[in-house]
Amino acid sequence: MATQEPGWELYRSFLAVMREGSLSGAARMLGMTQPSLGRHIRELEETLGVSLFARSPQGLSPTDLAHALLPHAQAMASASAALKRAAATRHDTISGVVRIAASDMMGVEVLPPMLAAFRQAHPDVVIELSLSNQMENLLRRDADIAIRMGRPTQDALVARNIGKIAMGMYAHKSYVATHGRPKALADLAEHTLIGFDRETAYIRSMRPASLPYTREHFALRTDNDLAALAALRAGYGLAICQCGIAQRDPALLRVLADSFELHMDTWVAMHEDLRRSALMRALYDHLATALIDYATSAVSTKKRAQARSLRAPTKR
Q: Which residues belong to any copy of the HTH lysR-type domain (predicted)?
């Protein structure tokens, strides 16, 4: 039985060992000596009255209990980071630190110019950009603001729908020069396709029933969206890409524009308690406005053609 409450520094050392896999790696991560970090682990085990690691000549192996404690230590780390961000942020000024969570693709290809514009207007702001295709927990304050593909369901969150981001099928002009363009969806079977490695529930929900587009069809399979985009830009084959990203690259050509288009329902969300912060509210509103502009500018080729025909003068 524990006789006292372990300090956060002990859990921080435990978390570092779990992340790095060794005392030496954890010590380097935290800027500590290896003996000092080892004492932290032993003190935590003694205080909790449990064994967290099995020791062998090959190093430390986490016990089942260590794996059970890991998510709680991660929650403590998130809370500690949120406390530091809050302490560095005045609620009445647009200054301080804010952590944004987004997917790899949004964080690398879409958000940077939006964040640069915000930083230029507010030079006292520091941005922490957490990129992952996993959902960050806003209730646990893993991040302050999140860009999400899908409506948040937690009641304690403030969320704004920025619309549907259009996605189409694209190929690099070098690929088209060699292999031509598919004229119909059925022609995709004759082309080199870039796609996912593991089919998630989100991918299944996005894929239209009419599209014969499964893992077995892909000549390059990856769950890293940036890797897929790089392969598309290299001329490897056809891939689905956000229209707003592809339209910036004249070498990427839209194919099957009249028969294929997907839409990602996109939201900006933050914890409702952050509405009192001038910084959080300003960045939240800035991102929402900028993403709405991005989503509405990335319209399909078909819609642009329809808009041009509506603007064209009629003959009398």
A: 12-63
